[in-house]
Design brief:
Blueprint: H1 5-16, H2 18-29, H3 39-47, H4 50-74
Helix pairs in contact: 1-2, 2-4
Amino acid sequence: MPSGVDYMLFDDGVLSGPVIAVKTLQRALRVPPDGHIGVVTSAAIVHADHGTLLEDIAVARYARYKAIIKAHRRT
């Protein structure tokens, strides 16, 4: 796992759970999100631009947190 991506995945796993974190990573990689890091996900990580990958994960996480805040404001 590339430096930076490993930290982002760990942090997201702590805050949102490992399955959600891996699915977020997979969506950013544009591979089927099954929640497991297997051959397809590993290959996509190797070939990805890691800076862009980190940005895509950060944007997805921000959107997820924003939706949570919005849902809590309604209650």
